[in-house]
Here is the input.
Amino acid sequence: MPEIRKLDTEDAFQDQLHNRAREASLEQRKLLVSLSTACLGAYFFALTVKVDPMLLYSQKVVLGIGAVFLFIAVLAGLIAWQSDAQRNYFWARGLQATTTEKRSPFFEKKNRWAKRMEKSMRVLRYSFALGVFAGVSYSIMRVVAI
Here is the structure.
């Protein structure tokens, strides 16, 4: 049975898809961290400025919880950026190594940083969603209270 070989165009297309996926992930991370930071500022503003009618205790609690989730999202996004940089560094070092024995520790570190990045991205997404949910809940509470 003849060996199945990939065409050069298939390899190029696969590389292009991988590059697009990486760019989309980077853009998502940037966007979520930026939005989390902006929402965190808005929550801080809402908690510190005098508003009329005054905020109810439950509204302050919901805003506080939302602020905590958004802070976690920002922190997770920064950890994801650092993890991505470290993963790529150790990956490059592993590829530069001349023997398997020298490569192995670099690839182990690369895999550890890749797992950290995956976990921190998951935390970023969920924390951002919960922070936004808290903001929507606060808005509904404000409208109902008026």
User: Anything to note?
Assistant: The chain has one domain: 8-145. The CA atoms of residues 86 and 113 lie 6 Å apart.
